[in-house]
Write a structure and sequence with these properties.
Blueprint lengths: L1 H25 L3 H15 L2 E6 L6 H7 L1 E6 L2 E6 L1 H8 L6 E2 L10 E2 L11 E2 L1 H14 L4 E8 L5 E7 L11 E6 L7 H15 L5 H9 L1 E5 L4 H4 L40 H13 L3 E6 L2 E6 L14 H13 L18 E3 H4 L6 H8 L3 E8 L9 H17 L4 E8 L9 E4 L9 E2 L6 E4 L4 E8 L6 E8 L4 E3 L2 E3 L10 E2 L4 E4 L6 E5 L8 E6 L4 E6 L4 E5 L6 E7 L2 E7 L1
Bound molecules: zinc ion.
Zinc ion binds next to loops.
């Protein structure tokens, strides 16, 4: 082990030296460099460039211009396609082309039995056979699913592993996906091996059995087959980061602050497939495996923790810590220490990235996704694959087990017992889309959260919101909270209450809402509530025709309470 550490330390020195030499040798003339990058682009549609840190004045501008990879020593490594490179040149930054002087020969498994010792990368066909064989060998706990197709029409596959794989039962949904950057292939094999471990240990190992019984686990080992097999389905040696259209899939998702296409590219087939899969599955917890560093990176990528942290930042940190604590003690002491000492970081604190899948899942899909950077070497030598599995196995399993803790329950209609799709909002806690929703089909919801005592408001369209106070969520267990919601009677959803001759108008209203009451009315005050049932404002009614200023309300649907009657109105 000491030898290993020494070796890894020496290797890092050599790599650093190589970086420096590469830069110095090539930096003589930027014109030469531009020629070299363009030649590389004409061959591979993507090129890696090194930019000295001293050159970079605005890292976020650079991150918007090219696909920044990672800081390496005195440099940042970035990827460019033709369009990105053209834009990059306008920034006038010194740079050099980064080429590996001796691309590793990675041993390939060309048939299924060669994968049994887990020290090879599969050809695309072997991968495809493995996935089919998992489903065929374990039909009661495994189903093969197609997420979609790549730009070159390769299948993007997932395994669903669960005690009832053919039905959408009410259990937390968990999703592992790897290698959306096609050249980051360590996670690809780790995911295949994890699937194999889960399936072959059902009924044998207690943890595997619990996971399969309590959780719907989805595993997609290869998210970008066109990048991984860029030069044919039989080798991963010349894999590309980008997809077949030279697009970085991890910048191609809708951005939180900058619109649907912040990267200036159309949504790729891979991106559309993943968005549709997320829509139909509503995952609660997920991870996205990458390589090039050893660190866990939790939301948001788009913001530093100072400018916008996630409401569940403490949950993310404790889950990351749990992962780090589960890494094998046999791992070298430098393992998962190359970015931060803790082994994890807020995404934007490392460097800001717009349009990542992690933020898409977390912000737009109300899920929780962490990016796992699983090996500093993107294409781990095949001789190291067994070691990395042994180091990381505990962490990969423990992360799925987070689905066994938190809060779950059903939201149903008080009269019909029908399921209700409701918003589950933790008061004084949820913010910036961290709330979750119950399933329309069954009313089931699952909310991962740190232990504590919370007040939770359940709300749904056309229902009276209900707040449950002092919900005690114990750590390390699953807590249950079922809720029934009462429907707002239809006649109260209208603009007037005929029986009591109360009128409000106009509806929708912009600045003023007129309340018109019958002659003999004994209503002298009003309250306005939002749809969560929280009182926003109140005031006096001085006349049977009173104008209430609603200028300061945000746009949306409100309820006005007048003498025990609730009337719904819309603020424009
Ligand atoms: Zn990556």
């Amino acid at each position: 082990m000491y030898f290993c550490r020494l070796l890894s330390f020496t290797m890092k020195k050599i790599f650093l030296l190589l970086f420096i030499l590469t830069f110095q040798n090539i930096a003589f003339s930027q014109n030469n460099v531009i020629e070299q990058v363009r030649t590389e682009l004409s061959k591979r549609k993507e090129a890696k460039i090194l930019i000295p840190k001293s050159e970079i004045k605005d890292i976020n501008l650079l991150s918007k211009t090219i696909s920044l990879d990672y800081p390496k020593g005195e440099f940042w490594l970035g990827y460019v396609n033709e369009k990105q490179y053209k834009n990059f040149l306008t920034l006038n930054l010194k740079h050099s082309l980064f080429t590996e002087s001796y691309p590793k020969a990675l041993t390939m498994a060309t048939n299924l039995s060669q994968m049994s010792s887990w020290d090879r990368y599969p050809t695309y066909l072997v991968y495809d056979s493995m996935m089919r064989r998992f489903a065929a060998s374990y039909p009661n706990i495994c189903k093969l699913d197609t997420i979609g197709f790549s730009e070159r029409d390769s299948l993007i596959l997932a395994l669903k592993i669960s005690s009832d794989p053919y039905s959408d039962t009410d259990k937390p949904k968990f999703f592992y996906t790897s290698t959306m950057h096609g050249d980051e292939i360590t996670g690809y094999v780790l995911m295949l091996r994890l699937a194999d471990w889960l399936l072959s240990n059902y009924g044998i190992d207690q943890r595997a059995t619990n996971i399969i019984n309590s959780t719907q686990v989805y595993i997609n080992p290869l998210a970008n087959p066109d990048g991984t097999y860029a030069y044919g389905n039989n080798s991963v040696t010349f894999a590309t980061r980008y997809n077949a259209n030279a697009v970085d899939l991890n910048r191609n998702f809708p951005s939180i602050p900058n619109g649907l296409h912040a990267d200036g590219e159309n949504w790729q087939k891979e991106t559309l497939a993943f968005m549709a899969y997320a829509d139909s599955n509503e995952f609660s917890i997920s991870a996205n495996l990458h390589g090039g560093a050893e660190v866990l990176n939790y939301p948001f990528d788009t913001y530093t923790s100072n400018s916008q942290s996630h409401a569940d930042a403490n949950w993310f940190i404790s889950v990351c810590q749990q992962f780090i604590d589960s890494i094998s003690p046999l791992a070298p002491s430098t393992f998962f220490r190359d970015v931060t000492h803790s082994g994890y970081t807020n995404g934007g604190d490392w460097y800001v990235v717009d349009g990542s899948r992690q933020d898409y899942q977390t912000y737009f899909k109300h899920s929780r996704e962490i990016t796992f950077e699983v090996s500093s070497d993107k294409s781990l030598s095949t001789t190291q694959l067994n070691n990395y599995w042994n180091y990381l196995k505990g962490g990969l399993i423990s992360y799925i087990e987070t689905c066994q803790k938190g809060l779950q329950g059903y939201v149903r209609d008080s009269l019909t017992n029908e399921p209700v799709r409701a918003k589950i909002f933790i008061n004084s806690h949820d913010a910036f889309n961290s709330e979750v929703y119950s399933k329309a089909s069954t009313g089931y919801y699952y909310r991962p959260i740190q232990s504590g005592i919370y007040s939770i408001t359940y709300s749904a369209d056309r229902y009276y919101p209900k707040t449950i106070y002092n919900v005690n969520i114990a750590s390390n267990s699953m807590n249950n909270q079922d809720v029934i919601l009462a429907k707002i009677p239809d006649n109260l959803g209208e603009t007037e209450d005929n029986k009591f001759l109360i009128n409000i108008y106009p509806n929708p209203a912009k600045d003023l809402l007129r309340v018109s009451l019958p002659e003999n009315s004994n209503i002298f005050s009003y309250s306005i509530f939002n749809m969560l049932g929280i009182e926003i404002t109140k005031g006096k009614i001085n006349d049977i025709n009173t104008d209430i200023s609603i200028k300061n309300l945000n746009k949306g649907v409100y309820l006005i309470l007048l003498g025990g009657k609730t009337i719904k109105f819309i603020k424009e």
